[in-house]
Design a protein that fits this description.
The chain folds into two domains: 219 residues, Enolpyruvate transferase domain (UDP-n-acetylglucosamine1-carboxyvinyl-transferase, Chain, Alpha-beta prism); 200 residues, UDP-n-acetylglucosamine1-carboxyvinyl-transferase, Chain (Alpha-beta prism). The protein has twelve helices and 22 strands. It has a four-stranded mixed sheet. The chain has a four-stranded mixed sheet with strand order 4-5-3-14, covered by helices on one side. A four-stranded mixed sheet has the order 6-7-9-8. The radius of gyration is 21 Å and the shape is globular. Strand 21, helix 11 and strand 22 form a beta-alpha-beta unit. Bound molecules: shikimate-3-phosphate (S3P). The site of shikimate-3-phosphate has 9 residues, from helix 5. Shikimate-3-phosphate (S3P) binds next to helix 5.
């Protein structure tokens, strides 16, 4: 199978109803929670992607049985203290920052040292942000000189509860600390800048001892030691981050209309919808419901003939953190200059995404002013690409690949985009869905 994809024509108009795969954040959290319960948990529509498979492999290494069939995944938990901490365990988080960081929170009580490794991209990412707070609980870490993977975690029998201030708006840091708090006597308190709250919602759904007080920019979370979790059956809703590629494709295509079914529209994830609506994209939410504490809806989007520029409010950054690359494409077609700021965290992702956003736009002939934490994009409502563009050496960042495909289909030009396997980490069916849209009405 060729590892690159060539695209040399724009997509024709389409009118379709689609479903995208299960939410990645919820899928990984479900695997980790289910590995801690007393008994069997079942999930439907679990995202079957490399990141989630890595989560399954990890809990298997800790002695948990998992049965994965096409339609259903079953995890046979051995209780909250049921991990088998054998000697010489190595956990491979592959490309997944979420898995690599979250699981460390659960390993703070390991009896034997555990090694955590990852792929080339994950091995460049910051793990000090996790080892620092988890060290306060009493776990010890050996990291590389640059505070990256591979690392080794040494657990402790005598964990201390902690007070932790999470300032980045990182749900991964918040969750890792919550997990460690669940293993620790007493109450741990986390003052966390607002970020996705799937862990809190799952805890509440499971009746676990957690209190969340919502303040203006922060949430104050109190979490106590847990002894038992009941099985969790979960029908995973579709991923807003995967949906975002098709929302933007529709907005940028002529005379098109798309409905995406059963998408998780948790308030802490819908920054992309808020931002695109402010830019004039026509999006409506239908059939809203609540499932396991999570908001879900069908998303309907139509082509947008007029796109407005935006001075993007920074309070939306964390809610749209995985969608900025694709939002930048909309800004490229806006009337006026768009400004996105305080986005240093974007360079901490699978690739330095702020840099990659600017790189893709530059290759498209779009003018940008980029700094370490901001980007100004000079929009052009008549943007048409005529040139040859090649996208490669981007650390196989799935979102760089998918953004490039959407840019090619929306603006034209002749694109050669390498490493199409990158979509396996979060959205293996991405290109199949593109093909169904190519088949028009
Ligand atoms: C995630 C949190 C975010 C996000 C990532 C998934 C999660 O990362 O970018 O794709 O599931 O907790 P940060 O916590 O680093 O912001």
């Amino acid at each position: 199978m060729p590892k690159k994809i060539i695209i040399n024509e724009k997509i024709e108009k389409f009118k379709k109803v689609i479903s995208v795969s299960g939410d990645k954040s919820i899928s990984i959290r479900w695997v980790l929670f289910a590995s801690l319960v007393n008994g069997v948990s079942k999930a439907k529509n679990l995202l079957i992607s490399d990141d989630v498979l890595a989560a399954i492999e990890s809990v298997k290494k800790l002695g948990i049985k998992v049965k994965l069939k096409k339609k259903e995944c079953r995890i046979y938990g051995r209780g909250f203290n049921g991990y088998n901490y054998k000697k010489n365990i190595t956990i491979n988080a592959r490309n997944s920052g979420t898995l690599g960081r979250l699981i460390l929170g659960l390993l703070v009580n390991t009896k034997n040292p555990i090694k955590l490794i990852g792929d080339k991209s994950l091995s460049k990412r910051d793990f000090k942000r996790i080892s620092d707070p988890l060290s306060k609980f009493g776990a010890k870490f050996k990291l590389t000189k640059n505070k990256n993977l591979p690392l080794t975690i040494y657990g402790s029998k005598n964990l201390n509860s902690i007070y932790y201030v999470e300032k980045r708006g990182s749900a991964q840091c918040k969750t890792a600390v919550m997990f460690a708090g669940m293993r620790t006597e007493g109450s741990s308190i986390i003052k966390a800048k607002k970020s996705r709250n799937h862990t809190e919602l799952l805890c509440k759904h499971l009746g676990l001892p957690i209190k969340v007080r919502k303040l203006k920019d922060f949430d104050k979370i109190e979490i106590k030691k847990i002894n038992k979790i009941n099985p969790i059956n979960y029908n995973i809703p579709s991923d807003i981050s995967s949906s975002a590629f098709f929302i933007v494709l529709t907005a940028l295509s002529k005379n098109s209309e798309l409905t995406i079914k059963n998408v998780n529209i948790n308030d802490s994830r819908v920054g992309v919808i808020t931002i695109l609506k402010k830019m004039g994209v026509k999006i409506t939410l239908r059939n809203k419901k609540i499932y396991r504490g999570e908001k879900i809806a069908d998303i309907k989007v139509k082509s947008s003939s007029k796109i407005k520029s935006i001075d993007c409010p920074t309070k939306l950054n964390s809610n749209a953190i995985d969608e900025f690359l694709i939002i930048f494409l909309v800004a490229a077609k806006a009337q006026g200059i768009s400004y996105f700021k305080n986005l240093a965290e974007l360079n901490q992702k699978e690739s330095p995404r702020l840099k990659w956003g600017a790189k893709i736009l530059k290759k498209m002939g779009v003018k940008t002013f980029v700094t370490e934490n901001s980007i100004k994009i000079i929009g052009n409502p008549n943007l048409e690409i005529k040139r040859n563009i090649e996208i490669k050496d981007y650390l196989k960042d799935h979102r760089v690949f998918m953004t490039s495909v959407i840019a090619a289909l929306s603006f034209g030009g002749k694109w050669k985009i390498h490493d199409k396997d990158s979509i396996r980490t979060s959205f293996p069916s991405f290109l199949q869905i593109i093909n169904t849209l190519k088949n028009g009405e």
